[in-house]
Amino acid sequence: MPGTLGRLAAVFGATVALLLTTFATAHAQSGEPWRNTSLSPDRRADLLSDAMTLEQKLRLFVANPSPPSPELGIPSRKEKDGCCGISLRTDLGVPTTSLPKGVALASTFSGTFARRFGFQIGQESWHTGFAGSTAPTADLVRSPHFGRQGESFGEDPLLGGRLPAGVVRGVQRQPGVYSLAKHYIGNYQETARSVVNEVLDERTLRELYGRQWEIIVKQGDPGAAMCAFQRVNGTYACASRHLLTDVLKVDWEFPGWVSSDFNACPDYGAFEQGADVCAPDLGTLEGLAAAVAEGTISAARLDDMVHRVLRTFFAQGVYDNPPPGTLDTPSQDLPAGQVPDQILDRGERLARTIAREGAVLLKNEGDALPLAEAEESIAVIGPDADWYIDMFGSPFVPNPARLTTLLEGIEDRAGGDVSYTPGADPTRYGDTFGGPAPVPSGVLRPADGSAEQGLNASWYIGFRGDDPQGDPFLARVEDQVNLRTGTGGLTASFGLNPSQAPLLPLPLIVNPVTATWEGTLTPAQSGTYQLGMRAMGSFRVFVDGQELIARNQVTLDNYLAPIELQAGESYAIRIVYRTDGPSQCCGPPRPNTAVRFAWVPPSAEASPQIEEAVEAARDADVAVVVANTFEGEDADRHSLQLPQDQDRLISAVAEANPNTVVVLLNGGPVTMPWLDDVPAVLEAWFPGEAQGRAVADLLFGDVSPSGKLPVTFPATEDQPEQLGIENPSLQFGNEDPTTVFDEGIFIGYRGYDERGLTPLFPFGHGLSYTEFGYSRLQVSNPRLATRSRAGRDGRVRVLVRNEGERTGTEIVQVYHGELPAQVDTPPRQLLGWARVTLRPGQQRWATIPVRLGTADHLLSYWRTTAAPPRFGAWVTPSGSVPIYVGASSRDIRQQGTMTVR
């Protein structure tokens, strides 16, 4: 029967193909030759372009979505944020799969998972009516404070190139969808992303940030690339002839088109430099027509722009298999269809698999994990453990189709006594400011005497005095004084905000505001507190009618004063605040509201919420603390500390219960002052919609952790600065900052090795519930190709054995040492890797090929010259190179030498 079905399927497929060919030929003969699918995408694009009027051509470049030209069969260029799942507005209620974020995928070191990840996005994009998906986000992580590193793929350009390339290939497996990869190039911060000038040399550009993108372009072949906001060496990335034309389109022979990030083209002149779509403000028919008529966009450039868009439409099947609704006049946000249930079911299984495989076991002393089946009681603690934890802004997937929270996952898997205590207030956008913790809601009560926790807040539009009169625009109880707006506030108003905390409505985000908060503070511990504000603007803080702090028009900083408070005594609090600081008001990208009522208490006992968590932990066999950050678009982290005083929470819980396991949900490194006090730490990243099930699978040992860190975790807050990498959030409020990449090629683990610094956890680190042994290293030498002889690939092989009692997967990593060159090269660089899954006692050879002369640029460096447009060339020096094989960049198990001839 299977053979019969197979033959029938083959006959059916051949019949369909014949019909399609006949249909295409008929159209070609009837005067529409571009419909002939046997022609190349380039030829079809030229034929269709020849048949188009100027207006039809200009429609291709109108802001997303572009108007279709159904008379020619041209669908809309309709695109959607989708780095890790299709991001549709919350109010639409259309479910899509929330996949783990890119850093979790990177931690799997798996190209197979990357392709499956991309295909899921591509299918859901097509079914909801979007031809373009902004996946993947490929921003090389320079700073651990970068707010969007969670959606990207780490600090190494080889890993950060190969896996995004796999995502691109996966997205484009779906006919009718193209990948709009972002953000080209050098994007590493959110704080001043639209104004910062990045100064870096050509070698750094090519070896790190460009190398990542060259791999994506040549191995993934995305239909389009999104250029970034910032300036590079004085020129906006979306108007840089060197970046867009010389490097991307000429050197790398990129055939697709370049689309700007939101209004990232400075003017119409960007088109002549290599941008093809500049949206939204420069994407109007009237404006484009005027630019063409005036010669700002030349005829040759317009022809090239048209060709690139049409070529991608043909190459990726958008023309022949347009997504639903794209031949009509589509809306930017509204989906044109639903994702079928079977695809959503498969998405949940994939999300669960990648979340499990990408989680990294950072620490596990005394076999604290996996949890024993016989555990009688588990105390789950954490401010958002009962909530959907995800990133903020465009990476947020608002309507996850098959969501389980951490609490639900643990409850379902444990099947026994599971309690839940938040221990802190929910995380929120204001937390990204770092600094002293917000005064928690547990000690605050409104002035009106209601039973709610928090303070009475009154918001007025416009700058008022210290005693605003009249009805406020907004009056409510707020659990904390801890708010931030700016561009992120505008994004939140679109529904792209995963926090439980209250938001400000749109008028208050783009107008000058005055706000007051009133109520009482009743501490649970007597002692000396630091109390006051972390804020930008003007403010006054009164305690029992006495002024404690007053500042006028200040920049963001800490403004606290010592005060003696007695446990159980209620102190009247009044705060007046205005958004009138330097360069603060009013609309994006200016900061606008930036305010926190903050404290430094004498100990954890000052917070009733922490004390409740301590009691719950003390009464349980094991405590699982779910700690998370809040980060994402327009939200660099000012500090690597956990927000909402979670560090203090973890320390207090660990003191009460030595069997405390910490589960981290975050996008990048955090400091861990409590690390020595807990036996186990599991890094789960932002794990998507199956977060509850996936984490429970790992905690209870249904699968063994196998993820490896794609980023280095600093040991201290200031360690990145020792590498020469400043905290980008310090540019908050600066309207014309410059960042010089003085560290050159020594970012991430390269920098730690070069400067002899010891991180908290090194690149590539990750433990398992079993142990692996390495032996019998074999190195085969590569040979460079010359005019008289062919090249030859090299190879590294090592025998890996599972020496434990559980099945597990090891990610074998190969690094090479300094190159035999006349320039400084990193002490170690990732050369390749292999995933090996072994049963107890099983052994297998792990083989890592070393192919020279590819976009990977293995064993090579960029030699800079002064001659444009290339400004240099890749060089692979002959000679011997050290080879290191191990379980991380600092856990080397075998060493050898490779000789390049």
Describe this structure in words.
Belongs to the glycosyl hydrolase 3 family. This is Glycoside hydrolase family 3 C-terminal domain-containing protein. It holds the Pfam family PA14. By secondary structure, the protein is an alpha/beta fold. It folds into five domains: about 1-30; about 40-320, Alpha-Beta Barrel (TIM Barrel); about 345-425 and about 610-700, Rossmann fold; about 430-600, Jelly Rolls (Sandwich); about 770-900, Sandwich (Immunoglobulin-like), CATH 2.60.40.10. It is built from 20 helices and 34 strands. Strand 22, helix 17 and strand 23 (about 660-665) form a beta-alpha-beta unit. The longest helix has 28 residues, at about 1-30.
Kindly summarize this structure in a few lines.
By secondary structure, the chain is of the alpha/beta class. The chain folds into 5 domains: 1-31; 40-322, Glycoside hydrolase, family 3, N-terminal domain (TIM Barrel), CATH 3.20.20; 343-425 and 608-700, 3-Layer(aba) Sandwich (Rossmann fold), CATH 3.40.50.1700; 429-602, Jelly Rolls; 770-900, Immunoglobulins (Immunoglobulin-like, Sandwich). Helix content is 25%, strand content 24%.
Keywords:
alpha/beta; TIM Barrel; Rossmann fold; 10-stranded antiparallel beta sheet; 6-stranded mixed beta sheet; 34 strands; disordered N terminus
